[in-house]
Amino acid sequence: MKNYHIALNFEDGVTRFVDCGANEKVLDAAFRNRINLPMDCSDGVCGTCKCRAENGSYELGDNYIDEALTQDEADEGLVLTCQMIPKSDCVISVPVPSTACKTGTAQFSAAVGEVTPFGDAAYELVLDVAAEAPVFLPGQYVNIDVPGSGQHRSYSFSSAPGNKRMTFMIKQVPCGLMSGWLSGAQAGQPLQMTGPLGSFYLRAVTRPLLFLAGGTGLAPFLSMLEVLVQQGTQQPVHLIYGVTRDQDLVMVDRLVEYARRIPGFTFGTCVADPQTVHEHQGYVTQHMPAQVLHSGNVDVYLCGPPPMVDAVQKHFKAADITPASFHYEKFTPNQMVTV
């Protein structure tokens, strides 16, 4: 019997995945996995289990009352998990913290496969998982424990979900905790991780996409692009990759390869340093042609440091552009903030 993967995204950024049978209700599948989604009646009467379906196809039937879920709410993607029967993999936004559902983040381990330095700009960390490949949404991140420190650092996957070989793009930070450890890391060394986490992930592609990457904020877009290679898309996709210094502009060859593999994918790069030799000096907001905004009919995804996120928001406001949707992730050396 066909099973579907259901991603439950809680408001505290935790994501849990459950398998749901072809004729099984989401609420029952969650309970079977010891995740107590909000509920009271379980009969489509109270509306307590109301969530939002962000992605996927499903059936709700007609065994619920209008007071629990109105037609307008259903048209907007709201669902009753006690009535929802998936017909594909789905992503569901749950409007409570994971702790309220007596669940939390998953933990798993992996071994160092390779560590590749890109000058003094970044490392690419490759991890191999011996057990089942971790499931995540393209764009999400994990917390990786830094061995011997009692601390962790947060990094976005740059590989696609479902692979036992996972990759991460990690900024080299002078005297940084993870940077220092990676400089001497050896193949086979174990690492512990917690996740996946974050509400920054690729939604269903129904309109043009604009990806804005700042520095190692390129990582989640590499994951998204790999998924677009697998799934295909009829929509145009444009990525603008901005960095501070010339030497920070790494992995451009991979974008060239994606431009070959994804019809309609284009990209541009820019360097902020006034002394750059790059042909496009400045910030991403200065190299954002009007046509990639599609007069607002565009889904924008942005991953970069807080000043970049703030600058893009101000740019959209000044240009009187309101994207159809705008998802962003601010990152610092120690944490992620997703919206």
In the predicted model, the low-confidence regions spanning at least 5 consecutive residues are: none
CATH level 1 class label of the largest domain = Alpha Beta
Total strands: the figure is 19
Could you spell the SSE succession in H and E letters?
Answer: EEHEEHEEEEEEEEHEEHEHEEHEE
Please outline the major beta sheet.
6 strands, antiparallel
Full CATH superfamily name of the largest domain: Nucleotide-binding domain of ferredoxin-NADP reductase (FNR) module
CATH architecture of the largest domain: 3-Layer(aba) Sandwich
Question: What's the helix count?
Answer: 6
Structure in words:
By secondary structure, this protein is an alpha/beta fold. The protein has helices at 26-32, 71-75, 177-182, 219-231, 252-261, 306-318, and strands at residues 3-10, 15-21, 50-55, 58-59, 78-80, 85-86, 90-94, 106-118, 122-128, 141-146, 151-156, 165-171, 190-197, 209-214, 237-243, 265-271, 299-304, 325-331, 336-338. α4 (219-231) runs parallel beside α5. It is globular and about 65 Å long. 37% of the residues are buried.
